[in-house]
Amino acid sequence: MPPCTSLKSLVSVWIPAWISVLRHIWFSLVLAIVFLVTGAIAPPAALAVLRQVEEAPGQVVYQSRESLRDRDGHSWQVITFQRLRPNGERSVYLRLVGFPGVAAIDRSQPLTLTTSLGQVLTAADASGQIFTDASLPEPNVGQYDLAPIVAQLPTGIPLRLSLPLTNGSTLSLNIPPALVQEWQAVLAAPQFDS
Fold it and tell me: Is the pLDDT of residue 93 over 80?
């Protein structure tokens, strides 16, 4: 009888221990799935290539291009660029380009950048400068003047880009910290002597 009692006590200890281990594993798996589904764990953003283009003698453009998806899964090109002219004039813009027919940008409203800390920065529309026929602008393309807010762009924290659309909805893009750092690299491009 003692061996049988020993086996019973061994089983009575091991089964609850295994059930506890399985519960912990199950809980960990469920928690990991919840994080992945809710976006709490996001893959690192791919770094865009910083480009330097000489448009004309003494006129240089520095730019960053990245493709981001909005909450509906539509892809948007986000292009930040600084143009330096020979006379020392500097312009800094953010251009958004979506697929035709997907969304129409409401150019009467500013672009809004909101930090994860709640700071709100706005950039005025400057789209009229990019179309050869200003009376027929492409509805899926917008350009915004970043010069007034360049110095206020935060480092190391994500931004939320919001832009009203003509149908009353709002385009929303999450801007990861790595992309904000690229923007700052574009904006810190070296000045040159005239």
Answer: yes
* pTM across the whole model: 0.70
Comparing 3 with 112, the larger pLDDT belongs to 112
- Region of residue 156 (phi > 0: left; psi between -120 and 50: alpha; otherwise: beta): left
Domain ranges for the chain: 1-41, 50-187
Q: How far is CA 77 from CA 31, 95, 120, 153, 175, in A?
A: 33, 8, 22, 20, 12
